[in-house]
Amino acid sequence: MKRIFAFFTFSALVLAMGCATNPLTGKSTLALVNNSSIFPSAFQQYDTFLKENKVVTGTTEAKRVEAVGIKIKQAAEKWLAAIGHSDYLKDYQWEYKLVEDNAVNAWCMPGGKIVVYTGILPVTKDEAGLATVMGHEVAHALLNHGQQRMSAGILQQAGAVGVGLAVSEKNQQTQAIAMTAYGAGSQMFGMLPFSRSHESEADKIGLILMAIAGYNPEASVPFWERMGAASGGQAPAEFMSTHPSHDTRVSNLKKWIPEAKAEAAKYGVVFK
């Protein structure tokens, strides 16, 4: 029992110390791993990925990805400068690449390394649709979601150790049942909701970024409706997914559009 108490006391102290406040949301977030360690690794992985995949260059689509990415980055710089946090971006190294792949997807690594797959371009349709995607991906980077996922993974592993200690004197069958229950429960009620909250947070911040960049945030709604249609109804139930349902996303975006427009207006961007 003393070992268990000492373990959870130590874990609580680590958790209390391993937090950071994000300037865009004002929220305290998990930061058990420093970006000074995460960013270099992410940059290396990104470079490796680009070498192993076909990067599209020189085309109209590739140039559009680069141009939209720069506008979204500049919007982030304006926003952070306005709230007194220009230094927040000092370690970011922005890069935006179009990669030939039929997957309807895009992603961003910690530190600002973004990939857009050619497969998503028919769904984005135009520059505003692409801005919806890239605003979302840049938001993931700015919100340090990679850092938070790694930190949550560390806590999940620590929890498994704690459960193991708690049932260490039980028989093997009881130990196996306890660990299986913990694994399923921590995933269903911890990691999945955590991931869905990140997606919604990136949707909202991305909406504001695209608006500051000059793209009408109302364009986000038809984009996500097209994404829903493209999925063909094959998405898993929301509570079992890492992402909110398309219907939830569209509903949330409609609520956030006035806020995004109001924020953009502070920078002289006004939509009809």
Question: Could you list some keywords that capture this structure?
Answer:
alpha+beta; 6 strands; 272 residues; disordered N terminus
Word description of this protein:
It contains 9 helices and 6 strands. Helix content is 63%, strand content 8%. Strands 3-4-6-5 form a 4-stranded mixed beta sheet, sandwiched between helices. A two-stranded antiparallel sheet has the order 1-2. Mean pLDDT is 79; it is low at 1-17, 188-194 and 236-242. With 272 residues, the protein is α+β, with helices and mostly antiparallel strands. Strand 1 (19-21) and strand 2 (28-30) form a beta hairpin.
Helix and strand topology:
Layout (H helix, E strand, L loop, with lengths): L1 H16 L1 E3 L6 E3 L4 H18 L2 E2 L3 H23 L12 E5 L6 E4 L3 E5 L3 H4 L2 H16 L2 H22 L5 H41 L7 H12 L14 H20 L7
Parallel strand pairs: 4-6
Antiparallel strand pairs: 1-2, 3-4, 5-6
